[in-house]
Amino acid sequence: MDGDTKTMTFLQEVVDILLAYIVESFDRETKVIDFHYPNELLQLNNWELQDEPATLDDILISCRATLKYAIKTAHPRYFNQLSTGLDMVGLAADWLTSTANTNM
Question: Could you tell me which SUPFAM superfamilies the record lists for this protein (predicted)?
Fold first, then answer.
């Protein structure tokens, strides 16, 4: 694959992962968190930084694993003293800002 195609494919897969996470976060039937103790998480995934750069496929695997064990702050049953829910406009603005300003 050429560079442009590879970049677009990778970014589309990242967006697909993020959108699936958001949809799952809105589902009242799912857990707010798939809780595991830190020592259990260390056994489930390789969180160590490697000496060599990760492949794009490895990065996608890490993205999925990270979101699998993250607290779903957009979940209808998530309540916190500082935040609750998903601000879709704020999320879109964050994606826009991150895309347009690569220095951030």
Answer: PLP-dependent transferases
